[in-house]
Amino acid sequence: MPVHWLLRLTHWARHPPSPRRIGLILAVIAACLLLGGIEWLWGWPEALGVERVGRGVIPR
Fold this sequence. Notes:
Elements: H1 3-14, H2 19-42
Keywords: Membrane, Transmembrane, Transmembrane helix
Transmembrane segments: 21-42
């Protein structure tokens, strides 16, 4: 584990985040899990898919 992360963990241990920040973090994680679950159940819409484009060759 890099030293930067150990320093961050010690800072959080000495100065824990506020309940509001913990709620925000949990809300973001829940939103990500919800979107991932929706995508897993129904798949990705074809209209939002990426289409392959040529290498920029201009037709004559």
